[in-house]
Amino acid sequence: MTDTTSDAAADPAADRARASELSPIGRFLKATELDTRMLGMVGALLIIWIGLHVISSLRLGVNPLDFDSRTFLTPRNLWNLSVQTSAVAIMASGMVLVIVMRNIDLSVGSAEGLIGMVMGFAQVHFLVRMVGLELGNPWIWVLALAIGLALGLLIGAFQGFVIAYLEVPAFIVTLGGLLVWRGAAWWVTSGQTVAPLDTTFQLMGGGPAGSIGAKWSWAVGVVACLAVVFALFHGRVQRKRFRFPLRPIWAETLLGAVTCAVIMGAVWLANSYPWPVGIVNRYAAANNITVPEGGLFIAHGIAIPVLMAVAVGLIMTFITKRTRFGRYVFAIGGNPEAANLAGINTRWITMKVFMIMGVLATIAAAISSARQNSSTNALGTLDELLVIAAAVIGGTSLAGGSGTVLGAMLGALLMQSLQSGMVLLGVDSPLQSIVVGAVLVIAVWLDTIYRKRV
Questions:
Q1: Distance CA 255, CA 252 (A)
Q2: 363, 451, 342, 399: which is closest to 99 by C-alpha?
Q3: How far is the CA of 264 from the CAs of 145, 257, 272, in angstroms?
Q4: What pLDDT digit, counting tens, does each position of 159-178 carry?
Q5: What DSSP line would sit under 221-258, residue for residue?
Q6: Maximum Cα–Cα distance for the chain, whole Å?
Q7: Tell me: the pLDDT tens digits for 88-108?
């Protein structure tokens, strides 16, 4: 029997025959192995950007091709958009794991607010007035961030324990957390805003000081492109090693070239946004630099919060795709009963997922409060809506078992683009909420249709 059995999937002739039956687009997608849903999201994002740019240009009465500084597609606006997206994208990468396991976390915005308030209180009051550290001490921001991480880990562990071991539904636990943590944030300082924050801590919020400049941005871009080339080469070697199907050389080259072009284009865009004139003049005066007649151009470069978001995205992608823990998360989301029978400690995995969510809420709180140079009770308000919407729009199924970190982060960029565009166009705040809610419902509807066809 084994002598007469053939493996059709391993027959190159059969593969070529099947490929010839596909359309040119189908053959291209098969060769490059691109995710059609991800391509659709990128296409939707580009349409939104172009649409907002055209509408803002027409509203101002300028030619869209002139790229006026007040329109949407300008280095200034896109740079600010990247910074604004960072906090939501970081939390969305953790929300993927939560939703994949068929849970939900409605408390991330309130937890972000509480953690941000505690870190602000630690910097302004606790570490300076009670511990006795002097203002500007380099340990202040480190200790404040450590306190925030410990609190975020504790919040996530507590909610995860109640959900996993006490078997209270995640919806109820995190809905209660939404109210409890928001109230606790007010209780920490009796509703008072805490400011200003430590100068080093503020670097995590972006701005001229919270960016790495043009030279380091180009260096980061080059390193990222080399990493892309290495990843493609290593992946091809591994496929050969395990005798998996190989992508055509042209497909590998195209993927590498397009990815590197996007990376270097993003770096060029970040370097095209200069420091404000007032800050440049003060910097020049402090460093005895002569300002030329046309002004001194100093580029922002890539913002530190954007680098933090990229780092979190890479780490979370590695966790989901390359670790046993990540495989267990998707196995539990696909079939909890089977995962339990297979010996997976589903309760401990659930608890760890919520602990990760708490840590990511801390990082988001640090970025948001540093950007505002203050900790307020409004910090993180309604961020849970944006985070959940970003994950769902990014392809994470509410039915569990599927989702990607990259998709969630693109979803965060899409949601923030809509919100930023509406602010640029002067849309009223209530209408902004209506649009965001409608987009979330439409995304879930489209996900339902997609899964029925698969």
A1: 5
A2: 399
A3: 32, 10, 12
A4: 999 999 999 999 999 999 99
A5: HHHHHHHHHHHHHHHHHHHHHTTPPPPPHHHHHHHHHH
A6: 86
A7: 999 999 999 999 999 999 999
The predicted-structure confidence for 42-62, as pLDDT tens digits, reads as follows 998 999 999 999 999 998 888
CA dist 339 and 86 (Å) reads: 34
Other beta carbons within 10 angstroms of residue 152's beta carbon come to 28
Tokens of 248: 């055509």
Neighbouring-strand partners of residue 211: 303
- Angstrom distance (rounded) from CA 12 to CA 10: 6
Give me the phi and psi of 274, to 5 degrees please: -85, 165
**CA quadruple 91, 448, 103, 346: dihedral positive or negative?**
negative
Q: Please report how many Cα atoms fall inside a 13 Å half-sphere around the Cα of residue 185, on the Cβ side.
A: 30
3-state secondary structure 278-346: HHHHHHHHHCCCCCCCCCCCCECECEHHHHHHHHHHHHHHHHHHHCHHHHHHHHHHHCHHHHHHCCCCH
Which position has the higher pLDDT, 158 or 402?
Answer: 158
Tokens of 434: 């209506």
CA distances from 240 to 92, 215, 243 (A): 35, 38, 5
**Under a CB-based contact definition with an 8 Å cutoff, are residues 312 and 405 in contact?**
no
What's the pLDDT band for 1 if we cut at 50, 70, 90? very low
